[in-house]
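Weekly modeling sync, notes
Attendees: S.R. (lead), two postdocs, one rotation student

Agenda item 3: backlog of single-chain predictions. S.R. asked that every request posted to the team notebook include the full sequence so nobody has to chase files. The rotation student volunteered to paste the first one in as an example of the format we agreed on. Action items at the bottom.

Example entry:
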Amino acid sequence: MVTNWLRITHHDETIQLSWQRGYESPRLAPEVSFQQPFDQENAAELRWYLEDYLKFPYGIFPDNAAKIEQKLQQWGQHLFELVFRSTEKGREFFQEATRDGLDKCELGIISDNAKVLNLPWELLYSRDYQFLAPSLAGMYRSLSTQGVKAPLPPMPDDQLNILLVIARPYDEQDVNFKTIARPLLAALQPNWYCFIFATRI
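Predicted structure, as returned to the notebook:
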């Protein structure tokens, strides 16, 4: 069960770390300047390692991959220091948020800048915990609440349309999709005229 939330909020040229425990109000660390820690060369190397190397891991390529693997920790540690070691509050928040274990902590990255959201945050690395991502309760990226939102057309108030997507990867061995759809329809029908389109994936 998640009991702590760390959020990295990016705005303009700064980032701000916040920590929330349970239902308490979030606490904010001071904003710090943020510069892209990955240049084009680093990004190209990481892209090659993740997307191309496994397609042909032969010849000289394993040697190149080994060199990049050595850099992964360095890149992750640099990113970790930038986010969690730039201020005393940042240090305190990370320590308190992970006191009960990384598996009780969720990390969010919030920005309206695609380049920031696309950074390999999964590489975050600390000497105490190694790579954080595999042990965290979760990690997500999100647009900020200040993001530009497209205006929505007027919505009808006399009908509720629901798209219900049911995962049934084992087909006949899974629960019948009607078993899931029927209780939802029954719960809504007394108050709403509903149209439910159910599909299986």
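Discussion: group reviewed the output briefly. The domain at 4-142 is CATH 3.30.420 (Nucleotidyltransferase; domain 5).
Action items: rotation student to repeat for the remaining queue; S.R. to check formatting next week.
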